[in-house]
Specification:
By secondary structure, this protein is an alpha+beta fold. Helices cover about 50% and strands about 15% of the residues. The chain has 27 helices and 24 strands. Strands 1, 2, 3, 4, 5, 6, 7, 8, 9, 10, 11, 12 and 13 form a 13-stranded mixed sheet that branches. The protein has a six-stranded mixed barrel with strand order 16-17-22-19-21-20. A four-stranded antiparallel sheet has the order 15-23-14-24. Helix 9 packs parallel to helix 12, helix 9 runs antiparallel to helix 14 and helix 14 crosses helix 25.
């Protein structure tokens, strides 16, 4: 019996090749979307769960207020880990990390390495990073040892055995003591090099407020997390306030986050890597489900349209004694066969599309990800569910048709017209919703790219600076400034796109304010084209005030504030100029700069302190004209090789670093754009099905109208008007839903666009045009049909 059902199903697919093709393509598209999105979601939800102790590891974060608004960051002071281990019995061990770009050398090779970590030996006891060579207990047990990743071993040593080899990091030498397997892509701790934490000067003194380190704790049990948080809060209230450097209502305390929740549920800055967002996971789930629903709705509509020509077959089967259950099984079997073919095609197509999906998702999934047993099992279940649910409605209709009705008036599904129209409306509600939200996301990204930030980020080359270069920075700047095409050269501790330095200042009357801080040189303001609203720019005289003689007895800073900092201290820009404030050392406010975005648009502009300090330089900024950038870069590279031979010439553009802040939003836009196009395509396939069915049902009517003199345009309008109203209804339904969801998404930005009314009109109009073309093709085909042929066959 089963063999007979399969044979009939296959013959039916061959007979109706067009409908079968559209059916399979629609379901394949929906399943591919779910498969690829499923791979991404599984990857994100399993972040850090490869660690055997994942449920017992927590990250410590800092919550502080030195005046102004409270700040929460992912970094802590060096004292937190060891002190918490001493104080709380729930803490088995701790590990502190410090991530820094370093120059690593071997023989004649020099590379700038970004994944360079300082960490305690306990790293390999707490986390489940696999060592391919070397022992966890001895890998970092002395200050001259270094652990390298498998990728780094291949990069530096090729086929040589790296064990025992010497690598130069700056001016220090380290012996390779272990080789670690590359960290999984869904690990927040990724490294190519690890050296002992004790190498750092900061490790030699414990303090709560030198917040530069990422601290993790290993607890005895996951049940200890909540009680430990309460104990930490109570303990920090007892710590001497002089040690915490807080007064009055100011505070400094610490919180803990479960390791497995950090990536998707924490939005704190300064972690080891940028976090994801559980919101984007929810969005992707919704998109995948909506695409799959559209594909399923298509299948229902296409099956109904296709079944219009199966009246004779059903009648003969009923005459020969076929029961309703047998007919139902046959049609469900056909649906299952189509779903099975679609699943196989989806797997094959996923392999082809995986590189493109990697591009829009920002991941590097391997083909083996598609063959994960869990993914394949879910895919099989999905195919069965789709096959049954999508085929159930047509199967019920077909199996319940009365024999007398078929023999008397032929076969039709006029009673199901409302259901089919509702399904079409539902499809276009989803499609227009995705189109509107995509346009809003793209507009917000355009706003971010084009908004005046308060400085000019275009044509600025960023060159990293290390401590060995500091004595040469001024000399290098002078030579670089003479290169043709260079318009300005400056140095600073950090890029203005994302200022991370947190600090506090105190006024002469004792008021304290938490600020972000940006140390810079006297050329930074004019090179970055920041706007001074009161006061004057830094100059060489300000630099001479920074007298380090007599143990810094006469050391004085020169400060600038942004407008927000002046306002927080109760001053106008003009009042702020000349005021005395202190940051460890006293100084005078020389100017107030216009507020500029020194963090992402997710954060409102807060108080910023700008101060003159050459010793904190970590980057040079070279503004080029843009007319001949390659020639300028080539000249800078030549100079670099002459003046800084111990480090490779590495550079980046400031606007690229700015764009990197919004990588998550860019990926979301890519996903929405791709799947919005798919949704429209699938919705049009569904509309094609219903139109084809309507034309088939009205063949005689169209023939009679043509005989009576109806022209082609009249026939096209007759058929089109019955369907285009559904798209308009869908636009009306989807618009408020899309507005609400877009509004919620935009709330995550401190600076955002307004949602314009024309977006909804344009999305509805675009969908209407696409739908009209889809319907028009079928309507034109019907209008051009020979009425003699249609009436004779009818």
């Amino acid at each position: 019996m089963l063999k007979n059902y399969l044979k009939i199903a296959w013959r039916n697919l061959k007979k109706n090749r067009l409908y079968a093709f559209i059916n399979i393509i629609g379901l394949t598209t929906g399943i591919v979307s779910c498969l690829l999105i499923g791979v991404y979601i599984k990857h994100e939800l399993n972040y850090d769960r490869f660690n055997q102790n994942a449920d017992k590891i927590v990250r410590v974060t800092m919550d502080y207020n030195f005046g102004g608004e409270s700040q929460k960051v992912a970094v802590t002071g060096a004292k937190v880990g060891p002190q918490f281990k001493r104080e709380f019995p729930q803490v088995i061990d701790f590990v502190r990390f410090f991530k820094k770009t370093r120059i690593v050398g071997y023989k004649n090779q020099l590379f700038e390495e970004k994944n360079f970590l300082y960490a305690e030996p306990s790293l390999f006891e707490i986390f489940s990073f696999k060592l391919l060579n070397g022992a966890p207990a001895t890998a970092l047990n002395s200050n001259d040892k270094i652990v390298i990743s498998q990728t780094a071993a291949q990069k530096y040593f090729g086929s040589e055995d790296p064990m025992g080899k010497i690598l130069k990091v700056g001016e220090k030498s380290f012996m390779v003591s272990a080789i670690a397997a590359d960290a999984p892509s869904n690990s927040q701790i990724r490294f190519d090099f690890i050296v002992p934490f004790n190498v750092l000067d900061a490790a030699k003194q414990e303090a709560y407020d030198n917040a530069n380190f990422i601290t993790y704790l290993l607890l005895k049990s996951k049940e200890d997390i909540e009680p430990l948080q309460k104990q930490i809060t109570a303990y920090m209230q007892k710590v001497d306030r002089d040690e915490l450097k807080v007064t009055g209502s100011q505070h400094l305390t610490f919180n803990i986050e479960p390791l497995a929740s950090v990536h998707l549920h924490s939005n704190l800055p300064d972690g080891l890597e940028p976090n994801g967002s559980i919101i984007y996971i929810y969005i992707l789930v919704v998109v995948a489900v909506l695409i799959l629903i559209i594909a399923g709705v298509n299948y229902v509509n296409l099956s109904i349209a296709q079944s219009a020509g199966r009246g004779a077959e059903i009648g003969i089967r009923k005459v020969l004694g076929a029961a309703k259950q047998q007919l139902f099984k046959q049609f469900i079997g056909e649906s299952m066969l189509v779903a099975a073919i679609a699943v196989l095609f989806a797997i094959a197509l996923s392999f082809v599309l995986l590189p493109f999906f990697n591009q829009i998702s920002g991941q590097q999934f391997q083909f083996t990800s598609l063959l994960d047993p869990i993914i394949l099992i879910c895919l099989a279940i999905l195919g069965i569910v789709i096959g049954f649910l999508a085929g159930a409605y047509p199967a019920l209709l077909l199996s319940n048709i009365k024999l007398a009705k078929i023999l008397k008036s032929g076969f039709s599904f006029t009673s199901g017209q409302g259901v089919r129209h509702s399904l079409i409306i539902f499809q276009f509600v989803i499609s227009i919703f995705l189109v509107i939200t995509t346009v809003v996301i793209l507009q917000q990204l355009s706003y971010i790219r084009n908004k005046d930030l308060g400085y000019n980020k275009s044509n600025v080359v960023v060159l990293p600076v290390d401590y060995r270069m500091l004595p040469q920075v001024d000399a290098i700047k002078k030579v670089v400034s003479n290169i043709p095409g260079v318009e300005g050269v400056a140095a600073a501790n950090n890029e203005p796109v994302d200022v991370k330095w947190g600090d506090a200042i105190r006024t002469a009357d004792g008021k304290r304010l938490t600020v972000n801080a940006l140390p810079m040189d006297e050329d930074f303001i004019k090179t970055m084209q920041l706007k001074i609203v009161a006061g004057t720019d830094f100059n060489h005289t300000d630099l001479l005030q920074m007298n380090t003689a007599n143990n810094y007895k006469n050391y004085r800073y020169s400060f600038m504030l942004n407008e927000s900092a002046a306002r927080a201290l109760g001053w106008t820009p003009e009042q702020a100029v000349g005021k005395e404030i202190s940051k460890n050392f006293p100084g005078r406010i020389k100017a107030v700069v216009k507020d500029f975005n020194f963090k992402s648009f997710h954060d409102a502009i807060g108080p910023l302190l700008i101060f003159l300090d050459h010793d904190q330089t970590q980057a040079m900024f070279v503004r080029v004209s843009g007319n001949n950038t390659p020639a300028a870069l080539q000249a800078i590279q030549k100079l670099w090789k002459d003046r800084v031979p111990y480090r490779p010439f590495e550079y980046r553009f400031l606007d690229e670093d700015y764009d990197a802040l919004y990588r998550g939003e860019q990926r979301t836009a890519g996903v929405f754009t791709t799947f919005s196009a798919l949704a429209i395509l699938l919705a049009c396939l569904g509309l094609f099905a219903v139109t084809a069915y309507a034309v088939l049902q009205r063949t005689k009517e169209i023939g009679i109208r043509k005989v009576l003199g109806a022209n082609i345009s009249t026939i096209i309008m007759l058929i089109s008007k019955d369907f285009l109203w559904m798209v308009m209804v869908a636009a009306v339904i989807s618009s408020p839903i899309a507005w609400y969801m877009s509004h919620i998404w935009l709330q995550d930005f401190a600076y955002r666009i307004s949602i314009h009314w024309w977006i909804f009109i344009a999305a509805g109009a675009a969908s209407l045009i696409v739908a009209w073309i889809t319907v028009g093709i079928q309507a034109l085909k019907a209008a051009l049909m020979n009425p003699v042929k249609s009436l004779r066959s009818e």
